[in-house]
Amino acid sequence: MFLSLMPGTAVFAAADFDFILKSGGQSTVTIGVGDEITVEFELVKNDGASYSMYSMQNEILYDTEYFDYVQGSINVENGFKYGFRKLESSSGAKVLIGFVDSSENGTERSGRTLVGSFKLKAKKTGNSSIKNDSAYVTKSDLSRYSSSYSDIDAEIVEGSISTPTPVPSLQPTSGPTAKPKPTSKPDTNGGGGGGGGGGGGNDTNTATPKPTAAPSASEAPTSEPIITPVPTSGISVQIFDDVETGYWAYDDIMELYYAGIVNGDSPNTFLPENNITRAEFTKLVALLFEFEVDETAETNFVDVPAGEWYTPYIAAAYNEGIVTGYSETNFEPDKNVSRQEMCAIIGRKLNIVSDKETVFTDSDEIEDYAKPYVQSMTEAGFIKGYDDNTFRPFENATRAESAAVINRVKKSK
Fold this sequence. Notes:
The protein is of the alpha+beta class. It has six helices and 15 strands. The strands form three sheets. Strands 2, 5, 7, 8, 11, 12 and 14 form a seven-stranded mixed sheet that branches. The protein has a six-stranded mixed sheet with strand order 13-1-3-10-6-15, with no helix packed on it. The relative contact order is 0.18. Residues 1-14 and 163-236 have low confidence and may be disordered.
């Protein structure tokens, strides 16, 4: 499936982890134009208690007016798959650092999890901060530990200042780590085939993800740390055999994977061209917008009973007013979500409605409830039509298509 099927929901405690940023052990530094600053990062469990983890993501924000990204390296236990990626954003650029354990389930660990560093090159005088924009550790059920952050304040002056480049000396503790539980992923539009039509419906239709088979365990990590240089752009590993680096939705899938929003159908497959269900898509949207999810929630839908993995997410999305059922008593969680439904669900949450006429050659096939959302989502660049200028509203959305749409929305937030 596209998302983890575990019924648990996020429980936020007070600062389970610290994401620490330093340079040469300092949080305030002075460097010269043309100098490189080494940003050291460390993830530490505050109380030293054991915990299970299968992935971590840290987005470190820096201002491209003052810095250029150079490279990154990791000191981390064997058994992790990881990658650095530079992401552009409205407020500068981010270094996205993602880690996924290579074993199937969360392994009990304690103490420091990982350390590493990346380099930035100063290019303009002034004052600028390098800060944690977001960071979290996820469990095998995709719930998250809470965390606190520390930032670096840098003063950039004229002329080079001769200072040694600090290298993090911290070593990760030994012990295996856990690997994510795969689930399926959505596809966003043009480029990925969508499957057959279906999913007609009215303004009450919504899409949701469908559970997938539990992944098989992979080799347990060893305790010996490794230090590996990582390329300056692009996720550095191929996790899924069926999502190669040249695949049209590769970046979207991997960014959501490292963010803990999507998983594979198995440890090595994502099934990008498979359809995504209303239950699966609803959970994906709930994770994207960080809805408050109540594990004990119930609904009035007879086909969404208490205790099912998707019930809390459908209940949360229903309360947000972005999904409804096919009737007052039926939600049809296992029904594939259509492209027009996908637009309506996200469009309702974003509150974007266009009064312009749709320009697709098959616009007369788009149902009235979905037309303003299809047009607004298209105008925003979140979804596209096909090369023949059709939208194919009743075509099923694929896992790759939904991933692309969700990631575009995520980047715009």
